[in-house]
Amino acid sequence: MKPTTSRREFLASLGAGAAGAAMTRWTFAAQPPDIVAGIDKATLLRGRDGSGPTWFHPRVCVVPGDSGPTAFMTLQTIAGSDYFGPVHWMTSADLGRTWTEPQPVPPLGRAGQPDSSEEGVCDVVPQWHPATKTVLALGHNVFYSGPRFSADQPPRRPVYAVWRDGRWGPRRTLDWNDPRGAYIYTNNCGQRVVLPNGDILLAFTYGPERNKPRSVSGVIGSFDGDTLRVKEVGEEITHDKGRGLLEPSLAEFRGRFYMTIRAEDNRGYVSAGDDGLQWTPKQPWAWDDGEPLVLSTTQQHWLPHSEALWLVYTRKDASNLNVIRWRSPLWMAQVDTDTLRLRRDTERVVLPLVGDGVAAPDRVALMGNFHTTNVSPGESWVTAGEWQPRNGVRGDLLLARIRWNVANALVR
After folding, report:
1. Staple 346 to which of 154, 175, 239, 334, CB 3.0 to 4.6 Å?
2. Across-strand partners of 128?
């Protein structure tokens, strides 16, 4: 595996003339060159061979420091469908080469309920908040009855904890007193944007009743380093298929906001807007020739680079025809930000399918829950927790290093 380089080392390796060219901002009219130098795969924690637990929901943010950046990951074990252990965290001071042992996040553990069920937390996404020098770890609550996911879930809400200077604060709930979210409102697994004034742009998926399709809206929240509060909720985006619209993720690219949304009609959806509250009409993800991607109720995530916006996703392919929800391999492709379509000629595999997705699909590890992180000007990561629901729920914790040959000016 090639080591991660610092910004200074990366630019020095390009040379003075090449560095200037690398930092050139390409116009929308001209497509940038192929900026992906290569992708390397690393196994951080083993579970596929049965030597350890199966870790899931690995999501990373980068915490700056005087001695260099620290990679900060939240993760939790999985033992069955939507059945997760307490949230843990671990860090790396050498940009992913070595990691501390996972340790529990005390405020995001299990809590007993009067009916003998337990309330847990899952789908956590950590994010560095520069103005307050904290990590905001935001997920949502989930209820368990014995060793399984409760069939009748009480109302679901976003819950979070704040890490500051090595210590975790208390568990808190993000309150939204709107009847449209009476049954559920959440930003689970969602990517967020920290705005220049310190506010946080996120998106809710929400619904008033269990059997009603959920809607999506952009949300602006204030955050003072301790408490996250809803300030403004944008227009409602609706969808009448299945459970509606789920797991929205946001990104900012060149002053415009983008939303990608999981759905349950063999499609994923995309929209764009100038303020994060008003959006263009949602449209299904499609290739540049208009052919829609065939997806199956699985999240997508953004990977912004200063020279191009990328999407990481799963989709139906000849290699994975019998894999559950086609959740392996993971792909990436560049987004045409004018048409909101994917450039087919840029698609490549981020994390490959291991095994036979046609003849032996039960032994193919699923990778549908993943996260993206810009780590340095020369490198971005995709982290994924494998699991095999029909083969002992076993899987490895994986990291894909995407190496850029054009410096990512979004990382300072």
Report:
1. 334
2. 135
Tell me phi and psi for residue 324, to 5 degrees. Answer: -55, 120
Torsion 143-145-146-148 (CA) sign: negative
Can you give the pLDDT at residue 33?
63
Name 390's Cβ contacts closer than 8 Å, sequence gap at least 6.
362
Low-confidence residues in the chain, pLDDT < 50: 1-31
Interatomic CA distance for residues 268 and 279, integer angstroms:
16
* Bridge-based pairing state of the strands 228-233 and 118-129: unpaired
pLDDT digits (tens, 9 = 90+) for 138-185: 999 999 998 888 888 899 999 999 999 999 999 999 999 999 999 999
Residue 244 burial by CB count (10 A; 0-12/13-18/19+): exposed, middle or buried?
buried
Torsional sign, CA 258, 260, 261, 264: positive
Q: Each residue of 43-86: pLDDT tens digit? A: 999 999 999 999 999 999 999 999 999 999 999 999 998 999 99
Give Cα separations from 149 to 124, 208, 209 (angstroms).
17, 21, 19
Please identify which residue in the block is written with the tokens 């990778």: 367
Whether residue 142 contacts residue 136, with contact meaning beta carbons closer than 8 Å, is answered with no
**Structure confidence at residue 1 (pLDDT):** 37
Residue 57 token pair: 């929901």
